[in-house]
Design brief:
With 302 residues, this protein is α/β, with parallel strands linked by helices. It has a single domain, classed as 3-Layer(aba) Sandwich (Rossmann fold). It is 55% helix and 11% strand. It is built from 13 helices and seven strands. The strands form two sheets. The chain has a five-stranded parallel beta sheet with strand order 5-4-1-6-7, with helices on both faces. It has a two-stranded antiparallel ribbon with strand order 2-3. Helix 2 packs across helix 13, helix 3 crosses helix 4 and helix 4 runs parallel beside helix 7. It is elongated.
């Protein structure tokens, strides 16, 4: 009995030892896996920083100004309405010229007669230059303008050549008072001559010298001739006083000079540039002009 109990205890101890060895072995294997897992390099997720805020885009003020004038350029260059207004203006010019010459002859004036005209958008059509500016999203500058006038291939404005040829035949000298400068004399005379305009010589072409005000140049012609008619695309081609646009954009001055304008001045269409636009946008930088234009539209919309 005692031996049997001893054998039983021995068997139990043997089983316990085997179990412990197995557990120890399993534990060792588990620890090995843990050690390997801990010792291996695991990829670390890196969160990228948030992207910087988008940069404020640069504003091309020249392009914006150019596009604001695109409709005016399109109208001047392509429309049958502009074409007809030029014809109509010069038809009226012929009627005014005949009436004014008749009055001068009635009082037996001995002074030679003269007709004074502007050049650009009056006798020469520069709308292709304006089209090029819109195409390139830019605005007027002296260099690009000079490149255009150097070509000397502007077309005649509708009705201009026929009227000035008629005026010359009626006994008038034609004087061209323009704000082109001395550098453009040769190309301007070539352009006028190639088109057959009368009196297209240095004596009759009065270019800008220091100021865009044409008062002194008109006075120079007036000192030797009886000016019977003026033709231009700007009211300032008749009187520098029309530069003042402070009150109601100068319309009051038009009313105050109505009778004189009606008798002696023919105004031709040109919405592409001029004093009307300067009165709104000013003469500052492209940015300042754009700001003034935006301000005007904001304040004057209904």
């Amino acid at each position: 009995m005692k031996k049997a109990r001893t054998d039983l205890i021995s068997d139990l101890m043997h089983l316990l030892k085997g179990s412990m060895k197995k557990n120890i072995r399993n534990t060792a294997v588990l620890l090995a896996f843990v050690a390997i897992g801990c010792s291996s390099t695991q990829p670390v997720a890196i969160v990228p920083p948030p992207p910087p805020p988008p940069a404020t885009p640069l504003v091309d003020h020249a392009a914006q100004l150019s596009m604001q004038g695109a409709d005016a350029v399109l109208w001047q260059n392509t429309s049958a309405e502009a074409y007809r207004l030029f014809q109509q203006g010069y038809e009226l010019a012929r009627l005014k010229l005949d009436a004014n010459l008749a009055k001068q002859k009635a009082v037996k004036s001995t002074e030679p007669f003269a007709v004074v005209v502007d050049v650009d958008e009056t006798v020469l059509d520069n709308s292709p230059y304006q089209v090029e500016l819109v195409k390139k999203h830019t605005v007027y500058d002296q260099d690009s303008w000079k490149q255009w006038t150097d070509k000397a291939n502007a077309k005649a404005c509708p009705g201009a050549l026929e009227f000035l040829t008629y005026a010359k035949g009626a006994g008038c000298e034609v004087f061209y008072i323009t704000n082109r400068d001395k550098r453009e004399q040769a190309s301007t005379l070539k352009n006028l001559n190639d088109l057959g305009f009368p009196n297209s010589d240095a004596k009759h072409l009065l270019l800008m010298e220091g100021t865009s005000d044409k008062t002194d140049r008109r006075a120079k012609v007036d000192s030797t001739h009886r000016i019977v008619l003026f033709v231009g695309d700007q009211l300032r081609d008749f009187d520098e006083g029309f530069k003042d646009r402070k009150l109601n954009y100068g319309k009051g001055i038009v009313d105050s000079k109505h009778d004189t304008l009606m008798q002696y001045f023919i105004l031709l269409p040109n919405p592409m540039y001029g004093t009307y636009r300067d009165a709104v946008q000013g003469k500052g930088s492209d940015m300042e002009k754009q700001q003034q234009m935006d301000k005007w539209f904001q304040e004057n919309g209904y």
